[in-house]
Amino acid sequence: MKNVLLIVTVLFFSAFTNAQNNFQNRTIKILLNSKLTITGDTNIKSFDCVFDMGYLQKENHIKFITDDPGHIRFKNAILSLNTKGFDCGSAPINRDFHKLIQSDKHPQILIELLEVRLQKAGSANAVVNITIAGTRKEHTFPVEFTAGAVSNIKGILMLDIKDFKLEPPKKLFGMIVVKDEIEIDFDLSIQK
């Protein structure tokens, strides 16, 4: 009985180790011509907070595996956005934005790519974990892409700020209110 248990244990760990070794390593670089904007809205007008791509890491080392045709899983595919890199166009809006996302306590917004399911040529559904102000939520959303030596990925991710336990700021005694829904609009150029 002990021998059978030992064999099963060895086989289990061997299979687990082999599955881990099937992940391929890749170094990628998000190019400076990429764009990422967080757009919000108030009951008066909308605002755009544009991210300065100069704040990104020069290179990212990711791992991926293709489980079946059209399904790719990722490890360590994390886009770390330093909150100092966002400019909303004016000092008061910048202050409100940084207060909203609690950038003093949480100076990074993390977007972790978990998996991609190809739909048709040039489109897919991406599954990501988004971490804002220390709260992480999983989201699935459509993306468009072109592949090559420099690939392009575009998409709009809609978020409810209350999912991240954020309270929208109110101005002028509550007459100006930020709406709960924001969008992250990205157009990334990625070099392999």
Task: Explain what the structure shows.
- This protein is 16% helix and 53% strand.
- It is α+β, with helices and mostly antiparallel strands and 192 residues long.
- The protein has a single domain (25-191), classed as Lipid/polyisoprenoid-binding, YceI-like (Lipocalin, Beta Barrel).
- The chain has an eight-stranded antiparallel beta barrel. Strands 12-13 form a two-stranded antiparallel ribbon.
- The longest helix is centred in the first third of the chain and has 20 residues, at 2-21.
- It is globular, with a radius of gyration of 20 Å.
- The termini are far apart.
- The model is unreliable at 1-20 (pLDDT under 50).
CATH domain fold name = Lipocalin
Strand tally: 14
User: Which structural category fits the helices and strands?
Assistant: alpha+beta
Any guess at the CATH architecture?
Beta Barrel
Radius of gyration: 20 Å
The fraction of residues in strands falls at over 45%
Q: How many DSSP H or I helices?
A: 2
> What does the average pLDDT come to?
83
Give the helices and strands as they follow along the chain: HEEEEEEEHEEEEEEE
Write down the CATH class. Answer: Mainly Beta
Question: What percentage of residues falls in helices of 4 or more residues?
Answer: 10-25%
Strand order of the largest sheet: 1-4-5-8-9-10-11-14
In total, the number of domains comes to: 1
Describe the sheet with the most strands.
8 strands, antiparallel, barrel
Kindly report the oligomeric state of this protein.
single chain
First and last CA, distance: 51 Å
Return residue spans where pLDDT drops below 50 for at least 5 consecutive residues.
Answer: 1-20
CATH superfamily: Lipid/polyisoprenoid-binding, YceI-like
